[in-house]
Amino acid sequence: MPLSHPASDDAPTAALAPDRPGGAARRLRTRALWAGLLLVPATVLVGVLGLASENAGRCVGYGEGCSGTPGWVYLASLAVAAVAWIHALSTPDGPAPATSRTAAFWTTIGAECVFLLLVATAFG
């Protein structure tokens, strides 16, 4: 009766197992997904809070005292957030998250914060 090494029994099944992404890469992808999806409710909430400001009534009613920020700044921050979000979600998985995925995730968070700040200050 030959002696077998425990690792030799696992070798064929390990070779046939599909390459699964690492836990850290999956967590980062999940966080990036939620960061992008929660932008819409956060924008609604910040918009309502902006409308509750002191100058919002005058801005909405008379068009006076509104923020002078041009519209392209809003679009630029959303475009940066969208491109970074797509990159964070579509980067291939590895045992550890790619450096570019981590950078894209934090760029998404930063661009979304800039957009939300612009929305909060739009009425005053």
From TrEMBL:
Q: Does the keyword Membrane apply?
A: yes
Q: Which residues cross the membrane?
A: 32-52, 72-91, 103-123
Where does the source fall among the domains of life? Answer: Bacteria
What residue spans carry the region label Disordered? 1-22
Q: Which UniProt keywords apply?
A: Membrane, Transmembrane, Transmembrane helix
Record's protein name? Uncharacterized protein
Q: Which organism is it from?
A: Streptomyces lateritius
High-level lineage? Bacteria, Bacillati, Actinomycetota, Actinomycetes, Kitasatosporales
